Fold this sequence. Notes:
The chain is an alpha/beta fold. 27% of the residues lie in helices and 19% in strands. The chain has 13 helices and 22 strands. Strands 3-2-1-7-22 form a five-stranded parallel β-sheet, covered by helices on one side. Strands 9-18-10-11-14 form a five-stranded parallel β-sheet. Helix 1 packs parallel to helix 10 (376-392) and helix 10 (376-392) runs parallel beside helix 12.
Amino acid sequence: MVQRVAVIGAGISGLVSIKSCMDEGLQPTCFESSHDIGGLWRFKETPEPGRANIYQSVVINSSKEMMAFSDFPPPAEFPNNMHHSDLMRYIRLYAEAFNLLQHIRFKSIVVSVRQTLDFSTTGQWEVETETKGQREVHVFDAVMVCTGHFTQPHLPLKDFQGIESFKGNYFHTWNYRNADGLHGKRVVVIGIGNSGADIAVDISRVAAKVYLSTRSGAWVVGRVGAGGLPLDLGGTSRMNMMIQKLLPSWMNKTEEKLNMAFDHKLYGLKPKHGFFQQIPVINDDLPARIISGQVQMKPNVKEFCGSRAVFVDDSFIDEVDVVVFATGYNYSFPFLPSALKAKCGHRLQLYKHVFPPALTRPTLAVVGFIHAFGSISPMAELQSRWATRVFKGLSTLPSEKKMMEEIEKDTLTMHQRFVCSERNPLQVDYIPYMDSIAEQVPSSEVTAAGDRNAIQSCLRC
């Protein structure tokens, strides 16, 4: 019988996992490698290797209404789209309200997670940790992996010929904190994900010039929607989902509306993909920085020659001082057995992005390793509630064969529907995915965390 559960990581996914364990009467022990909670959202003055990092100016893309914990809404006085410092205040309030901190062991690094010799009958795991240089092995009935996927920066220097001859400074966005030291500099930012666009805008306020290089372009939307309300209140809704399904041409209408705000082709942003095929760039300031000449769009970099950056259209920029690589992250779970890191396409081989299908006992779950047109928080909360029910035997999984068939089918659909790559390995349709997980947690069974409908209320159906 499952009783003791190891939770790895004390970010948002780890915290909701602790609470889900408590709601089901389980005994969670959370191992957090740093000295504090928050994970990605805890700003660090100095980058900490092996941990996610953010920059000073970060404002969350999801509104507080859409990313709220189901049973603990943000205070009314908090802004709709919170600065990371406000989000950390909210996370701390949540942890304090439900007494989650008592279950966390800080500065404890998980070195390995391996099955016990009698795993086939007990489903137990040996979790080896290191605290202040001392190693210890613990036995747990189940494990929840909540470490996220923004910890290992991807720096593809081999793709940029001549980078070794570049005379200036270069670094990954993972290292960026603020624009200090970049006053009057000529800066090239490579990559136009949300971090690349944010940092290009941030640096452009002090730099002599910022060049934003993109290989594939991006759709850019702001945080403010109709009537001044948060855009995602209306954009992430069942109504929009239904219209998109019944009227495929709706995608073209969406793109037309975006181009009415500003012509993406004219601004050098027009992507090769449709709007719903990849998560858009959320940025309120980029168009204004482009039209004012502070940010100039450029195609992909072909090579570097000393302080010159040469682009694929053979244009070039001389006297480049700094290059910022906004080239994404490699996801890594170094503590897991290699058998649990098998892939299907670019994604991990996980049933509904949570359970490894080959385990004889379903006592390990991955929580929060997901992407969608919507906040990760409600998805992680539902995943954690489902996982704890499976641990207790209240919900059952299909056979390994059926799970593998669904994984392969979902992977094929995902690759047809979205733009997936090693750097963007998975994406799901937000509301349908939430529904598929909520179906595993019967709405008739109400817990302290609220029933399924309370969580789904975050979707503002």
